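Hi U.,

Before I forget, here's the chain from the pilot set. I'm dumping it here mostly so it's searchable later in email.
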Amino acid sequence: MNVTEKLLHRQKMTKEDFITLLGFSENPEIKEQLREEALRLRKKYYGTKVFTRGLIEFTNYCKNNCYYCGIRGGNRNAVRYRLSREEILACCQEGYGLGFRTFVLQGGEDPFYTDDVIASLVREIKKSYPDCALTLSIGEKSLESYRLFREAGADRYLLRHETADEEHYRQLHPDKMRLENRKRCLWNLKSLGYQVGAGMMVGSPGQSIHTLAEDLLFLQDLQPQMAGLGPFIPHHDTVFAKEPAGSVELTLYLLSLVRILLPEVLLPATTALGTLDPSGREKGLMYGANVVMPNLSPLKNRRQYELYDHKICTGEEAAECRSCLERRVNAAGFTLVSERGDAWQPAEEV
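Structure:
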């Protein structure tokens, strides 16, 4: 049995297997074979549904200084903002009226929002919208913090690991940040019953087939319910400003690999894909993705949450953004739905 058949038969993969598969990323025949299998699995578990996540980018302050990120703490050119409780709740109200049934509170690691403030906000949103899922994406916290948020009602947590290779991690982050802590956080989140999201940048500086193989190996071990894969895009106020962007084609190939590796996963067609390729999100859906994340943040703040250059949809109203996505999703042969969009589970576990 060759390595492609091993993947298709859902056998446990080794790092060497993943290295071999990644070497086929420019092989048209294998790429199409894996795309078709990814699409088959995506339709088996989720049909033609595409789930929406209402993204609320509530703070662009961050204590960290990740070398690739436009809102890193050391970027003195960033125009900082924080949304008030009232502004966040207004975003939820608008989103609910537009059909969103998942809200994602995403921000830098901002100490201004204490654990108690976050927990109180979670409780208020869940009380106001009990039929909605709430996702947090606010970085590395202690087990106790994650427990507090979970008990307050948070359903999901996004924490992209960015790279699972220690040496590569050191190239992307300052010394005080640790890959082992990032991974520990993800395992802690799983232990508390969150639907957990990990994921990585594709084409980040220093990345190789070997580091990507480590990423796939980690995803295989972690078995997250969500996986975010997007191409690296440089930001002009970082040390990687002149580095080339990641490959759209390799990102699409990896979407297929991850869908086959984790058939029930919730897999976004990311904004970064749409930024590098005008049809990037539609292509993502055709390679196994089943989630899109329109922006519900106030229009006045969207350009300030600039993780990378040339981010799309920063000038669109929420209703306009959703309407545009709905047309694009329908044109690709899928259906944008107003559902929570939880990860698929066997009937006996639901």
